[in-house]
Amino acid sequence: MLVLSRKAGETIWIGEDVEIVISEVKGEQVKIGIRAPRNIDIVRGELRQDVSESNTEAVVKSLDILKQSNK
């Protein structure tokens, strides 16, 4: 993992297409802006975790239903 220190107004580039802009720093909260092509999905980490967990639950439920229907 790369760890960088940035101040408000400074940027970070990821590849040629993605720019991260530090817009504000207040205490422990950092506000960022992201400029990226529309074809790149940008999802907050906690939402990605929730979706992953929901998908896992759905698969388990589907497997349980299949097992019950095969009896």
Automatic annotation (TrEMBL):
It is found in: Cytoplasm. A translational regulator that binds mRNA to regulate translation initiation and/or mRNA stability. Usually binds in the 5'-UTR at or near the Shine-Dalgarno sequence preventing ribosome-binding, thus repressing translation. Its main target seems to be the major flagellin gene, while its function is anatagonized by FliW. It comes from Lysinibacillus antri. It comes from the Bacteria. GO terms for cellular component: cytosol. The keyword Amino-acid biosynthesis does not apply. This is Translational regulator CsrA. InterPro entries: CsrA, CsrA_sf. Homodimer; the beta-strands of each monomer intercalate to form a hydrophobic core, while the alpha-helices form wings that extend away from the core.
